[in-house]
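stage 2 :: seqdesign
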């Protein structure tokens, strides 16, 4: 029991820079109190003392503003920051190292019995005021933005924001690296040709580089096949692209930056 308590306190230190010492966490963190009360109500629920379990849960709600149904399954190092206005439904399942902020609802969208609340896998973070509604899974390490409303499954590691929740697509590092490699191969320095570049010409160049790379890959494959058939057609070098050919693009870019 003390081991779990120590783990709970450590989890607060890891996730709340405002926490100063163990005594403060023990006495001033309603999220902690709600979790301890839930452990009691959950044990009573498991023993079949349903009414008493609900009563204990209701006492926890009165004390902390956090309502966790005794039937909800909660993993280790669960951290509720600030608390107040949190509702966790009966069939919700919460993995290890999950964090919820104030105003979160893990709710259902139907009155049918059975699984109707979400499952949050390990390491999920749900921002303040977010509503996660329905019997789907939020994958490990996913983040739900504050005030988002999520009604569909979220893949592991994704970040979801807005109403209805949509996955934020971060710039694709792998694609950027491929473009850079292609640009270097043809002797062209792709000045600032990135996903976040607002210049339509630069974006078009980026698309051309992607296409060129695909064509290049296919040509290499064809040349390999021709060579296997005994042809030396691909032995001839392609005309070289010189950096001076792109001087006007470079000048324009530099004058913009200046
Ligand atoms: C969703 C969240 C996890 C994203 O964090 P991140 O991965 O660092 O993402 P960024 O801050 O780089 O934001 C990426 C984009 O999403 C937008 N965004 C971030 N959070 C958003 C939210 N809650 N709702 C709508 N859009 C949001 C940003 O404006 C940005 O848009 P842009 O690319 O058009 O500029 C974070 O913003 C969040 O909401 N965390 C919850 C924190 C919380 O509730 N704290 C309460 C403390 S009391």
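stage 2 :: out
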């Amino acid at each position: 029991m003390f081991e779990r308590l120590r783990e709970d306190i450590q989890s607060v230190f890891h996730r709340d820079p405002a926490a100063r010492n163990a005594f403060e966490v023990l006495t001033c963190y309603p999220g902690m109190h709600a979790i301890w009360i839930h452990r009691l109500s959950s044990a009573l629920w498991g023993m079949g003392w349903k009414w008493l379990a609900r009563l204990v849960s209701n006492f926890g709600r009165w004390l902390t503003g956090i309502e966790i149904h005794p039937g909800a399954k909660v993993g280790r190092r669960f951290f509720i920051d600030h608390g107040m206005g949190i509702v966790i439904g009966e069939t919700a399942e919460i993995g290890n190292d999950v964090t919820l902020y104030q105003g979160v609802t893990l709710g259902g969208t139907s009155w049918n019995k059975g699984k109707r609340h979400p499952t949050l896998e390990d390491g999920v973070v749900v921002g303040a005021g977010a509503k996660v509604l329905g019997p789907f899974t939020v994958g490990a390490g996913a983040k739900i933005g504050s005030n988002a409303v999520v009604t569909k499954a979220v893949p592991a590691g994704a970040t979801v924001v807005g109403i209805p929740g949509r996955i934020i697509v971060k710039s694709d590092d792998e694609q950027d690296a491929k473009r850079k490699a292609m640009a270097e191969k043809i002797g062209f320095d792709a000045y600032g040709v990135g996903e976040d570049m607002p210049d339509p010409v630069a974006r078009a160049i980026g698309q051309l580089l992607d296409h060129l790379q695909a064509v290049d890959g296919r040509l290499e494959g064809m040349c390999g096949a021709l060579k296997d058939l005994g042809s030396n057609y691909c032995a001839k070098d392609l005309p070289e692209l010189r950096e001076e050919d792109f001087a006007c693009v470079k000048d324009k870019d530099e004058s913009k930056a200046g």
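stage 3 :: structure notes
- Residues 191-195 have pLDDT under 50 and may be disordered.
- Residues 173-257 form one domain.
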